[in-house]
Amino acid sequence: MAQYIYIIDDDDDVITLVKNVFLSDNFKCKAFKSGEKALKCIENKPPDLLVLDINLEGLLTGADVARVIKRNSETSAIPIIMISGKYTDTPDIVKFLNDGADDYLTKPFSPRELKARAKAILRRINGNIYEDNFLRTKKEEIVINKNTRNVQLKEVSGNSAGPEITELDLTPKEYELLYCFLKHPNEVLSRERLTMLAWEKKYWGTSRTLDKHIQTLRSKLGKKGEMIKTITGVGYEFNDA
């Protein structure tokens, strides 16, 4: 069955470029210039993946559209690749990843890279990459349910009621990174290897996307985010002592 890619962008040239990228691989595409029209269509027929620009026609920005999609339980699983030629600074990228983007590309981008990243996201969602039902840290502070993709964070509350349990709201990419860390505890993972494990693609060198996702993951883990150690000049280690 063909997979649907929705493209939301106010630039006809970009829409044509992205369409050609995916139509050449037998994806089906729909394009929208405004977030309002896109959201109406998404409500009726959710796509398999969304390529979303920040600047759009109408009242809604791309960030607004991402927030609406991710806060709706019926559409929150839709992966989003956000693109922009205006916002390239680290604080902006972190904000958009926090808004729900699963990946971020700056314009002008390589069509081959866009397609590779989209395919990697779709493989992670549709493929049966891992066989375990659960992954846990030694003290069960973090528990992943592979079947439901739910992640629980347990923190000692200091009272007799027991630990406080929080369901973490992770983006698909944050989930995959956390899964990789729990699969390889106390092991230094180079940037190249971590990228291959989570993205199923070669390390892209100068891109900071990996660092941004780890930064947002640490933030959502709260104090447990300190378990993700930066190994300067190498990569990262998940310290599950």
Descriptors:
8 helices, Rossmann fold, 12 strands, 5-stranded parallel beta sheet, 4-stranded antiparallel beta sheet, globular, alpha/beta, single chain, 241 residues, Arc Repressor Mutant, subunit A
Summarize it:
The chain is α/β, with parallel strands linked by helices and 241 residues long. It is 38% helix and 22% strand. The protein is built from eight helices and twelve strands.
How would you characterize the overall build of this protein?
The N and C termini lie far apart (45 Å). The relative contact order is 0.10. The chain has 2 domains: 4-126, Rossmann fold, CATH 3.40.50; 134-238, Arc Repressor Mutant, subunit A, CATH 1.10.10. The chain contains 8 helices and 12 strands. α3 links the parallel β3 (49-53) and β4. It has helices spanning 12-23, 35-44, 62-71, 90-99, 111-126, 172-183, 191-199, 209-221, and strands at residues 4-8, 28-32, 49-53, 80-84, 103-106, 134-136, 142-145, 150-155, 164-167, 188-190, 228-231, 235-238. α1 packs across α5 (111-126), α4 (90-99) crosses α8 (209-221) and α6 crosses α8 (209-221). Residues 128-132 have low confidence and may be disordered.
Tell me the layout of helices and strands.
Blueprint: E1 4-8, H1 12-23, E2 28-32, H2 35-44, E3 49-53, H3 62-71, E4 80-84, H4 90-99, E5 103-106, H5 111-126, E6 134-136, E7 142-145, E8 150-155, E9 164-167, H6 172-183, E10 188-190, H7 191-199, H8 209-221, E11 228-231, E12 235-238
Parallel strand pairs: 1-2, 1-3, 3-4, 4-5
Antiparallel strand pairs: 6-7, 7-8, 8-9, 10-12, 11-12
Helix pairs in contact: 1-5, 4-8, 6-7, 6-8
